[in-house]
Amino acid sequence: MNISIQLLQENELATADHIFRLAFGTFNGLPKPTDFAGDCDYIRHRWKTNPQAAFSAEVDGKLIGSNLVTKWGSFASFGPLSVHPDFWNQGIAQRLIKPAISCFEQWNTQLAGIHTFAQSPKHHGLYQKFGFRLRFLTTILGKSVEQAAPLPENSRYSQMSETEQIESLKASIQLADSIYPGLDLSQQIQTVNSQNLGDTVFLWDDSGLVGFAVCHIGAGTEAGSNNCFVKFGTVRLGNNAEKRFDCLLDLCESLTLAEGMLRLVAGVNTSRESAYLQMLSRGFRSQIIGVAMHRPNEPGYNRTDVFAVEDWR
Questions:
Q1: Is residue 138 a contact partner of residue 276, using CB atoms and an 8 Å limit?
Q2: Residue 171 three-state SS
Q3: Rounded to an integer, what distance in angstroms lies between the CA atom of residue 53 and that of residue 8?
Q4: Measured CA distances, 88 to 18, 65, 122 (Å)
Q5: CA of 163: how far to CAs of 105, 158, 159, in Å?
Q6: What element of type H or E holds 310?
Q7: Structure confidence by residue, pLDDT tens digits, 110-122
Q8: Are strands 224-235 and 263-269 parallel, antiparallel or unpaired?
Q9: Coil, strand, or helix at residue 75?
Q10: Which of 30, 78, 182, 194 is most buried, taking the most CB atoms under 10 A from its CB?
């Protein structure tokens, strides 16, 4: 069997998406595995963001798996990592992880993280071979949104002037850096805007930016039909962080209704206990539970003083 690892090509994206759904649906025991993830899309927009960080596995010229690497400044992650079920247990996943590790090294990544199945020792063992270590559970939470206040002016990136967008990006970089040195979501904000995946909401007060949330909206994004999904959101640290977090979630609920969606979905690592409990108190309920693995084995921004939501899937 002649296995080659190379860059994923645009004309392979549909096949990569099919294999992703088949692999994850099979692992989860779905009657029709390719129904996995519904009308969500995880692969195309990640490839567009950085085609040089998307990898394929081929056997005799036939695509059998893929892995995509994401960079948020000093933090990076990879996934979805998927291999066609016919080729499981043949070391192909390991070969797809190796170029991701090379990306981390080239980017001087300070912290790498992945979201994987909490109940799968097989996955834990695979990632531990590459220096990842089990940390806290991450739960994907959702709630129905029936009413919310109108969005305030200057809160949506898509509706800002070019000058306002530039200033908002700078402010987001400074805020993210205060959570974890070098953390930078500016590319994600621009990707969501340029690829029409959703929008980013910004929370301001007299001191400047105190919170922001990058959101995918609807079918063909990571949200899926009728959902507003927070890819990443955080607020400024400090005594008023809990109140700011509440206000940021209010903005996300307002965006949900403004875009005609029915549910707000967001992930939170349970090491951020106060943020997790605050979301439960607002009516969020768990939909999916996974586990975060870190490389190296340090907290990063998964700390008790941080109020943030994100999803590394």
A1: no
A2: helix
A3: 9
A4: 16, 10, 12
A5: 34, 12, 11
A6: strand 308-310
A7: 999 999 999 999 9
A8: parallel
A9: strand
A10: 78
Q: What angle (nearest 5°) sits at the alpha carbon of residue 272, between those of residues 270 and 275?
A: 100
**Would the CA dihedral through 134, 185, 236, 217 be positive or negative?**
negative
Closest CA to 211 of 193, 232, 191, 225: 232
Taking the C-alpha atoms of 230, 13, 122 and 118 in order, what is their torsion angle to the nearest 10 degrees?
A: 10
The 10s digit of each residue's pLDDT in 253-265 is 999 999 999 999 9
Delineate the domains of the chain, giving CATH numbers in brackets: 3-109 (3.40.630.30), 142-310 (3.40.630.30)
Q: Where are the alpha helices (DSSP H) in the chain?
A: 13-27, 44-49, 92-107, 121-128, 162-179, 186-194, 241-258, 273-281
Provide the 8-state DSSP code for 277. Answer: H
User: CA 127 to CA 32: how far, in whole Å?
Assistant: 28
Q: Which amino acid is at 81?
A: L
Q: What is the pLDDT of residues 208-235, one digit of tens each?
A: 999 999 999 999 999 999 999 999 999 9
Amino acid symbol at 104: F
| Whether 118 contacts 247, CB under 8 Å | no
Rounded to whole angstroms, how far apart are CA atoms 17 and 308?
29
**Distance between CA atoms of residues 212 and 222, nearest Å:** 18
Q: Is 45 in contact with 195 (CB distance < 8 Å)?
A: yes
Q: Which residue has the tokens 């899309």?
A: 41
Question: How many other CB atoms sit within 10 Å of the CB of residue 146?
Answer: 9
Q: What is the pTM of this model?
A: 0.97
